Amino acid sequence: MPEDLHLKIRNLEPSDYPQLKELMDRVYDDIGGAWPEHTILKLMTDIPEGQICLIDHDRIVGVALSVQVDYQRFSNPHTYDDLISKAETIINNKKGDALYGLDVLIHPDYRGFRLGRRLYEARKEFCRQRNLRAILAGGRIPNYYKHADEMSPAEYFEAVKNKRIYDPILTFQLSNDFQVTRVLKKYLPEDEKSQGFATLLEWRNIFYEPQSSVIETRKRDVRIGAIQWQMREVESVEELLQQVEYFIDALSDYQSDFALFPEFFNAPLMGLSPDQRNQHAAIRFLASYTERFKVEMSKMALSYNINVITGSMPIFEDDVLYNVTYLCRRDGTVEMQKKIHITPHERRDWIIEGGNELRVFDTDAGRVGILICYDVEFPELARILALQDMDILFVPFWTDTKNGYLRVRHCAQARAIENECYVVICGSCGNLPQVENLDIQYSQAAVFSPSDFSYPHDAVMAETTPNTEMIMFSDLDLDKLTFTRSEGSVNNLKDRRTDLYDLVWKK
């Protein structure tokens, strides 16, 4: 076993060919040995960054060769000869949208050091840098000849996948996040050990972005703003709307993509109700202003170029009272989300009923969901949204005591972890004893992330001072979510046992 290792990765150079030939002749002695020198030199000319070698001191101990291809062509059945021209040169498609892995080989003396993984990681990084869709490869199955009499290639693959059989190439490919998409016949006829069969392997670049203009590209770095709202006595709806505009203006000045208000943030208007001690009458009085708030806040979203989530407000539909929030996009469109689960207080004192629709909303800054307060305490809702590729979950809430607040907070943080998304919570503070049910509030707005290495150690992106009126900002990287869902320490969404359980929305 080699001692005094001094390893580095670099691109192949023309002067490396004698060493490369010696290595390929030794490793590929059963299928013809090394490529001719002119084949390798052309590869270095056509796509130099795709030819990678691993060096110990001055000795080449590992190599990964690649070529650029058309994904549609080579993600379907093909043979190794489809990559080669008559002059025994490998065809590189400069306009191709995928990388094809030709060879990965490690010197026999250096096996057992997991060096092949280094070459694969370098190849994956090159694929990302080139913004290519995927890495494709035809993988030999050199131990298949030992089992060909008792199982088909597909059965052999399943046995290797389930670790009942070891295959030096397929086992390695599967451990490096490659997926087998099909079995290829007559891929390399001279490969007697594989009996001409190969697996078509694919590693998808989760950061691949199809070519588009900057204007059409969705933002990946998103700034959210939340208003920890002070409940205060008001003399008119105009006064309260002026306060709303003040905060939207302030968030817009900081180039925020979203503004989140708390649940029932405009409840002080109930203090203007002719019969404010009658809770049933007061909440219906408040509902009479909801349409105006929707229209005015939508205008502000358009004017200040910011997506506004309007907290929540009561609304009448067909003589039924609901608790609703609006997403006012900065392009002028408006969407509504009703609260699904109604608290005992809302149901008993205000006669509010729950909605029966739930969806993810597309925006220019990610796919978002909205759950109003109590709804976040029901994990099924957030999971349904997560299965629709939600990036950010907004939770406007209204709690009176700290224990009520902690129910919302802890459940929201759990939703971020189990659904691999960001969660933003925002409530109101202050005392308004002259208005029924507004005498006390407790709030601490916060932004939660998944719990993994690329996020804060406590999975809290930002939080406010408790019970103090203020605004909060947090910058969210949506690409981190993509990486977490695919290559995180754990994969909560991918690892669900759907063979045992499932989640169904009945409506």
From TrEMBL:
CDD domains: NAT_SF, nitrilase_Rim1_like. Residues 7-206 form the N-acetyltransferase domain. InterPro entries: Acyl_CoA_acyltransferase, C-N_Hydrolase, C-N_Hydrolase_sf, GNAT_dom, UPF0012_CS. One of its GO terms (molecular function) is acyltransferase activity, transferring groups other than amino-acyl groups. SUPFAM superfamilies: Acyl-CoA N-acyltransferases (Nat), Carbon-nitrogen hydrolase. Residues 222-478 form the CN hydrolase domain. This is CN hydrolase domain-containing protein. It comes from marine sediment metagenome.
